[in-house]
Specification:
InterPro entries: MazG-like_dom, NTP-PPase_MazG-like_C, NTP-PPase_MazG-like_N, NTP_PyrPHydrolase_MazG. This is Nucleoside triphosphate pyrophosphohydrolase. Among the domains are: about 90 residues, MazG-like (Helix Hairpins), CATH 1.10.287.1080; about 50 residues, no CATH class. The chain is about 70% helix and about 0% strand. It is built from 12 helices and no strands. About 5% of the residues are buried.
Length: about 270
């Protein structure tokens, strides 16, 4: 029988979690579901857990954040266990790599460089160090290394930031807004004359330029859209409440009535 003392030790810390994952992945005595998983099947859960962390932070639910951070940590443990099984890396090597990276990227804290820098200068220095790291990995093109698995709006901003560093950027928001108007016009035309695939391409172009406008305005488009989603959810919920007070549901209403209620909710929010 295996020794379960560490697994049942509430103060076992990180070694306990690593041992739990090792046991779950044991091909003979582990959990059949866990044994069947691979990097591709677990990756969507990793992304989901990261979003749940962000959601708990946005709601300032610190008790829930504790649990969500644990779930996200478990994803790291899961991937490192699979990496260890395949001989790619281990949890210890991942920790070492990250620690080495943080020391190398902060010479003004852990080295002999001065800490007397502005935040902008520190950001510029950080990007120079990252560029050197990409060069060491033979990532020589400007856009190399921008993760393809990022949310599309976030990746668009990162791609545009990279291009801007080498001078490929509009000088001000006026040019960006003009481009938005141009792309919107092309989308209207595409809707009437082009195929669904071509229309989708034009829509993507419009979103890409809108992401560029967000970058010029120093707005995170993902954050802005999440806020818009939350606002829509809140206001539509108020519309449903107003209908319920009349003994009705949205299915019993029509667009004109719901639109009027929406305007009332919007006005009430603005007058607070």
């Amino acid at each position: 029988m295996p020794d379960d003392s560490l697994i049942h030790d509430p103060n076992g810390g990180m070694p306990r979690l690593l041992e739990i994952m090792r046991r779950l992945r044991d091909p003979v005595t582990g959990c059949p579901w866990d044994v069947e998983q691979d990097f591709d099947s677990i990756a969507p859960y990793t992304i989901e857990e990261a979003y749940e962390v962000a959601d708990a932070i946005a709601r300032q639910d610190w008790a829930e954040l504790e649990g969500e951070l644990g779930d996200l940590l478990l994803q790291t443990v899961y991937h490192t266990q699979m990496g260890s099984e395949a001989g790619h890396f281990s949890f210890d090597s991942v920790v070492k790599s990250t620690a080495d990276k943080m020391v190398a990227r902060h010479p003004h804290v852990f080295g002999d460089e001065s800490r007397d820098k502005s935040a902008a200068q520190q950001t510029a220095d950080w990007e120079k160090i990252k560029a050197a790291e990409r060069a060491d990995k033979a990532q020589t093109r400007t856009l190399d290394g921008v993760a393809t698995g990022l949310p599309a709006l976030t990746r668009a901003v990162k791609l545009q930031n990279r291009a801007a560093r080498v001078g490929f950027d509009w000088p001000d928001t006026t040019h960006v807004i003009d481009k938005i108007i141009e792309e919107a016009g092309e989308l209207v035309e595409a809707r009437e004359t082009l195929t669904q695939t071509e229309t989708e391409e034009e829509f993507g172009d419009l979103l890409f330029v809108i992401a560029n406008l967000a970058r010029h305005l120093q707005i995170d488009p993902e954050t802005a859209l999440r806020a818009a989603n939350a606002k829509f959810t809140r206001r539509f919920g108020a519309v449903e409440d107003a209908l319920a007070a009349q003994g009705k549901t949205p299915a019993d209403s029509d667009l004109a009535e719901m639109d009027a209620l929406w305007d009332a909710v919007k006005q009430a929010e603005k007058s607070r």
